Amino acid sequence: MQKRGEFEPPVPVEIDPVSGRWEVGGLPMVLVPQHLLVNNLDAVEARVGRDEAGQLYRDAGRRSARHWCEHESARLGLSGTATVEHYLDQLTRRGWGRFAIDVLDPVRGKLCVRVEHSALLPVAGSVRSVDRACYLFEAWLEGALQHASGRPQPVTVREIRCGIAADECLFRSD
Ligand SMILES: [Zn+2]
Prior knowledge:
This protein is an alpha+beta fold. Helix content is 41%, strand content 19%. The chain has four helices and seven strands. The chain has helices spanning 34-48, 50-76, 80-93, 135-149, and strands at residues 14-15, 22-24, 27-29, 98-105, 110-116, 157-161, 169-173. A hairpin with a 6-residue loop joins strand 1 and strand 2 (22-24). It is globular. The termini are far apart. 29% of the residues are buried. Bound molecules: zinc ion (ZN). Zinc ion (ZN) binds next to loops.
């Protein structure tokens, strides 16, 4: 375990000197405070409920994960499975949590992933629901698995245990 301190970002950031916009690996990026992200989730869940919020974000999450995986697969020449491994490694490097793969079998549509220190858990002052808090990751994992499998229909992935009530979050395909 590294000591806490200031480090160079674990992903290379390119900054346009004119616009100030960020890019990582050729994709535009923004650095977002965790409390802003969680507060936005809070607000939507308070209005429509957790399950409906999950459905609202599902297609966008899947599509965005597929887009990222297609971009990185083409840029780095990775196979489907290697792309998913790269995706979860990059999520870890970017502070979304520590992702670990227990099962990854795109051909059979099987996946089991653990996440420690999820960035989607409630922050101080947050009022969000306290089970399946990390449902955004469900859609991201579905999109990544769909990319790797090449199937037209995504496999459903569920957060079956959340770090709020356990040491880590657990995601598994149906
Ligand atoms: Zn969770």
